[in-house]
Amino acid sequence: MSRHAIFIGIGLVLGLISTSIGLINGQEWSGFWLNLGTEFLGAVMIYISGFLIIERWEKQREEERKHEAEKKKLLHDFGSRINEDARRAAERISSMRDFRVYELTGQTFFRGADHTGSEIIGFNLESVHWNSVIFKDAVLTHTLFNGAILQGAIFKGANLSHTEFRGADLTDAVFHGAKNTDTAIFDEYTIMPNGEPYNPRTNHIKSYSQPSVKFSENPFYK
Q: Which CATH number is correct for 98-222, 3.40.605.10, 2.160.20.80, 3.20.20.70, 3.30.360.10?
């Protein structure tokens, strides 16, 4: 039996009870049928309204469940060692601002996730634990890795325009050929690939992204 039929049945019963009380109290039959129709119509309207409210609530709950299931899958795929899955997840997350900005921080992802060629732009990945992740040729502009554990991460050829690494652990990370490193942001709490703290004069990113460039030739030190 459908919910509509149940609600209408309840309305009919309540209307019948209400008007029967009037008949018992001496109401004429003509008034009885008029009141019965009125009571019935009112009850049906009330219970149909209640039905629609319940339906809307259940639909909303179902949408929330689907959304949470999608986010759980995206987190899994974003840390995947399968490049296609990881890139697809990054693309989807890019369209979900709240997820991109608030729900990735502090996550622990699979070691060796493959984001070769991914576009991870403006993501908040602060305090993530993501050792040996592969960001080869990825676009990481304006992405935040502050406080992240990125030991052994591969940034070969990655675009690091305005990427932030404040306080990040980059021990054994590879930056050879990384682009726009002059706008990437580090601080004295950043652990560089050699295991030592960042220093703008003696332990700068250029010595890892462009090993052939001597510190004395870097514009930062002139």
A: 2.160.20.80
